[in-house]
């Protein structure tokens, strides 16, 4: 694994590297270089090019996660608040890992990022496709003396502040689909998964997991079962740094978690509504095997989805909302 990662680190810049230079840097024979490169790139899903007589390069450069750069890019407050920054080359799921760390006594504000997840978790039991080096896979563990039920609303606060980070990075036309799907031109750019552990009366621990598609090639995302987009496309070619985005998201989450602990969801409601994708639209809510139709009228102070139905206004805390099919072609 270390040798594999050293190879990728060498090629990450997307430039040509001669077999000779690679062999010398890594203390391998030239014959071993090609074999090892092919094996590593195949395993990690990174397309490799070999240029006759010149060497090897990755088809696309990869900005690897760099803990020093992330710490440097954090605000002074974020740097003070963060308990530990873990970066994994590969992990099953950063959320699952931190849920395990809850029981092991990890401190509040432990952050975990991975280059790749082999069993990334999405909402509603779905998988989260997590190819190597392409996207952001980040989780933050947070401890609270409150009862777990009171932290449910953080789901919307997290969506609002992460959307705000991306808007500040230059994304125009970003929207939130209740509770916290990040959507650009009706295609999914990212999402959040919150998991809770603790006693009914508190204290409890919350793990906030954020996945944002950053630079994902079509073949890397081919098993995603819905329209998706990455930040590169949403920014229309404006450059960005994966590590800088990671730092801004960590900062935003830690700030929001702190504020939510004092003031609840109220200070985040307006920000969420600024990004509301479906406000005023006819929508369908899938709740288990029930289908509820109505007009989306925004969110309630506790984060519930408000729907104007034939029976009057109703509020929902769970379910999957989508635009009614008769409006699809207007998107
Ligand atoms: C969704 O379905 O929209 C939520 C996706 C959440 C994905 C992130 S990636 C980092 C963290 N670890 C996981 O296993 N899931 C979350």
Secondary-structure blueprint of this entry?
Blueprint: H1 2-11, H2 19-26, H3 30-44, E1 48-51, E2 55-58, H4 67-73, H5 76-81, E3 84-88, H6 94-103, E4 110-114, E5 136-144, H7 154-168, E6 174-177, E7 181-184, E8 187-198, E9 204-212, H8 231-234, H9 242-263, H10 266-274, E10 282-287, E11 290-299, E12 305-309, E13 312-316, E14 320-323
Parallel strand pairs: 3-4
Antiparallel strand pairs: 1-2, 4-5, 5-9, 6-7, 7-8, 8-9, 10-11, 10-14, 11-12, 12-13
Helix pairs in contact: 1-3, 2-3, 4-9, 7-9, 7-10
The chain binds biotin.
Please explain how this structure is put together:
It is a single chain. The chain is an alpha+beta fold and 331 residues long. The chain is 32% helix and 26% strand. The chain has helices at residues 2-11, 19-26, 30-44, 67-73, 76-81, 94-103, 154-168, 231-234, 242-263, 266-274, and strands at 48-51, 55-58, 84-88, 110-114, 136-144, 174-177, 181-184, 187-198, 204-212, 282-287, 290-299, 305-309, 312-316, 320-323. A 7-stranded mixed sheet has the order 3-4-5-9-8-7-6, sandwiched between helices. A 5-stranded antiparallel sheet has the order 13-12-11-10-14, with no helix packed on it. The chain has a two-stranded antiparallel sheet with strand order 1-2. A hairpin with a 2-residue loop joins strand 7 (181-184) and strand 8. The longest helix is centred in the last third of the chain and has 22 residues, at 242-263. The termini are far apart. The model has no long low-confidence stretch (mean pLDDT 93). Bound molecules: biotin (BTN). Biotin binds at residues 93-95, 117, 120-123, 126, 128, 137-139, 181, 191-193, 209-211.
């Amino acid at each position: 694994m270390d040798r594999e990662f050293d190879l990728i680190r060498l090629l990450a810049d997307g430039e040509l590297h001669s077999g000779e230079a690679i062999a010398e840097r890594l203390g391998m024979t030239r014959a071993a270089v090609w074999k090892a490169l092919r094996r590593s790139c195949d395993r990690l899903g990174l397309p490799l090019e070999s240029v006759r007589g010149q060497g090897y390069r990755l088809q696309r450069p990869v900005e690897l996660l760099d803990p020093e750069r992330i710490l440097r890019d954090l605000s002074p407050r974020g740097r003070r608040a963060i308990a530990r920054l873990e970066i994994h080359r590969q992990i099953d799921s950063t959320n699952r890992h931190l849920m395990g760390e809850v029981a092991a006594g990890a401190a509040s504000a432990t952050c975990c990022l991975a280059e790749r997840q082999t069993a990334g978790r999405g909402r509603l039991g779905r998988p989260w496709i997590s190819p190597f080096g392409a996207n952001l896979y980040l989780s933050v563990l947070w401890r609270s003396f409150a009862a777990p039920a009171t932290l449910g609303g953080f789901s919307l606060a997290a969506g609002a502040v992460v959307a705000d980070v991306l808007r500040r990075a230059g994304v125009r036309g970003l929207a939130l689909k209740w509770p916290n799907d990040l959507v650009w031109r009706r295609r999914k750019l990212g999402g959040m998964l919150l998991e809770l552990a603790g006693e009914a009366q508190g204290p409890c621990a919350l793990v906030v997991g954020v996945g944002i598609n950053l630079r994902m090639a079509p073949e890397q995302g081919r098993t995603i079962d819905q329209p998706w987009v990455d930040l590169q496309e949403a920014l229309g070619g404006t450059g960005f740094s994966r590590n800088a985005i990671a730092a801004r998201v960590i900062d935003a989450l830690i700030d929001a978690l702190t504020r939510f602990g004092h003031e609840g969801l109220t200070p985040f409601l307006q920000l969420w509504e600024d990004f509301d994708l479906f406000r005023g639209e006819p929508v369908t809510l899938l709740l288990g095997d029930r289908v509820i139709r109505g007009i989306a009228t925004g969110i309630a102070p506790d984060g519930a989805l408000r729907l104007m139905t034939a029976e009057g206004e109703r509020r929902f805390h769970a379910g999957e909302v989508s635009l009614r099919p008769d409006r699809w072609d207007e998107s």
